[in-house]
């Protein structure tokens, strides 16, 4: 039996902890989605100065593009945001090529 020890980094984290920090939050839940959606999103400011984001109908008004995981029971969760529509499409196609579970609804433009 070998005794494996891991050194910690200057942040005090082991390599395993660092890997978990570098992993996107949705990686562990990707199997719970049955499709992906891409939508243009605008960023706005309330009267009190707080910022909020919402989908926009006109892609020309988009400040960025979001990729959402579609939930089987309905609704979506935002997975990632991208500066351009092309980046969002490329990311979505990559996920679709890896995770067959996403093929039920495939890729939808919101």
Quick take:
The chain has helices spanning 15-22, 85-98, and strands at residues 35-45, 51-55, 64-70, 76-82, 106-109. It is an alpha+beta fold.
Please characterize this protein's 3D structure.
With 110 residues, the protein is of the alpha+beta class. The chain has one domain. It has 2 helices and 5 strands; from the N terminus they run H-E-E-E-E-H-E. Strands 1, 2, 3, 4 and 5 form a 5-stranded mixed beta sheet that branches. Strand 1 and strand 2 form a beta hairpin. The mean pLDDT is 88.
Which residues sit in consecutive blocks of at least 5 with pLDDT less than 50? none
- Overall, the morphology is globular
Q: How many beta-strand segments?
A: 5
Structural class: alpha+beta
For the report, how would you describe the main beta sheet? 5 strands, mixed
Calculate the mean pLDDT score and round it.
88
Gap from first CA to last CA: 54 Å
Please tally the helical runs, counting DSSP H or I stretches of 4 or more residues. 2
Beta-strand percent range: 25-35%
- Based on CA atoms alone, the radius of gyration comes out at 18 Å
**Helical percentage:** 10-25%
Number of domains: 1
H and E order: HEEEEHE
């Amino acid at each position: 039996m070998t005794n494996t020890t891991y050194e910690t980094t200057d942040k005090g984290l082991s390599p395993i902890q660092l890997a978990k920090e570098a992993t996107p939050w949705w990686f562990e839940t990707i199997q719970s989605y049955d499709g992906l959606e891409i939508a243009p999103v605008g960023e706005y400011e309330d009267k009190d100065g707080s910022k909020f984001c919402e989908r926009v109908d006109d892609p020309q008004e988009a400040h960025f593009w979001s990729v959402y995981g579609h939930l089987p029971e309905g609704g979506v969760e935002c997975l990632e945001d991208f500066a351009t529509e092309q980046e969002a499409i490329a990311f979505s196609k990559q996920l679709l090529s890896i995770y067959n579970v996403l093929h039920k609804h495939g890729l939808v433009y919101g």
